[in-house]
Design a protein that fits this description.
139 residues, alpha+beta, six-stranded mixed beta sheet, two-stranded antiparallel sheet, 4 helices, 27% helix
Amino acid sequence: MAEAGIERLVLVDPDTIEVSSQRIRLHGIDAPESKQTCKRDGEKWRCGWDATRALHDKIGKKPVRCEELDKDRYGRVIGKCFFAGEDINEWLVLRGWAVTYVRYSRDYMPVEATAKSEKRGVWAGEFVMPWEWRRNQRN
């Protein structure tokens, strides 16, 4: 996929972006949904919204480049995306805004362990894994 400027980038949620009208699901990670809440210090907080905001703040006006790895059952591209040479997927997991989606990949397990031990992002409190949260919303 071609490099795209920020003006063509849309954050759908922390693990799905849209570049030039092409929806891209970030490889190997799963992040809280935009409407998902977590608990920190006994209080609910909008961890999904915060995760989306953190990625938006990080990218700023930097160009984004994505590499297509596969397609999912919904026709979305599965890819690794980079800004300023940094792997967005890895950055989200390292900051605690996403978890390793072990059903599909174990690529980010080492950085997840760091985020968890340092209580970053969602690891700072209690949360439901995003795939479990989605399943509960459907039921």
